[in-house]
Amino acid sequence: xxxxKGSCNGTxxxxxxxxxxxxxxxxxxxxxxxxxxxxxxxxPIVNGIRVADSKVKAQRAGEWLFQLFGVxxxxxxxxxxxxxxxxxxxxxxxxxVAALRAIADSYxxxxxxxxxxxxxxxxxxxxxxxxxxxxxxxxxxxxxIESFGALPPFILVGIDLxxxxxxxxxxxxxxxxxxxDQQQFMKAYDLVTKGFKEKNLTYIGEAATLxxxxxxxxLPKPVFPLLxxxxxxxxxxxxxxxxxxxxxxxxxxxxxxxDEVVSHxxxxxxxxxxxxxINLFHYESREKIII
Length: 291
Hints:
The chain is α+β, with helices and mostly antiparallel strands.
């Protein structure tokens, strides 16, 4: 046993979220600058995992990990995160993954992403944040469907519309999708596939917009019409947290006049959404918040 460490990135909503046939899926938008960091301090005289009250989901996941590997022991689990809660940024999923990695590191357990998925799904519907790349993921059953790899260079201008969404309660409500909605999800999936194959963010942004538009009947964003206008004007796509409060515009990171475009878009959004925090994410070799 030793001091164990683990970490996990968050996300900015999802590129796509819907169903294929009867199977729920989402396509992740990982943001490496949003992170949960965990430390596990083993204590041989403690039975079970001690953790702050706000991190009980991570505690439950750790207990499942102990059961899986037949570990008898305990200790203190500490989690630090810069990911806001209840916004659709995968805060609790990132906590769970970071905690599992820290505990596994402490006990030298051969933990895999498949095991993490299985455990996380026992606690709550989970984002695919155990995978650092963009993946297609069954968030109800905790199963990887497909991996696309790293997203092409991008710029994301995002806003938080306020409030908090309880993901567990949200996912307990049945979602009614029409045949046309399901066709849109298939089209979105195909566009993302094409976007990665051709390394073209335009197709990926188009897919995200399709999914965001369908989601207006599930969890409407009042600002969607304005975001739609701005996305069209700046040749970007709309990204939303399908079960959260954030939304944004995804731009090609290779735009020759990218700084100028972002400056104009940021100014327009600041005027349109007065008093609403605006964050800017930028991908080069890794994402970073630059405002």
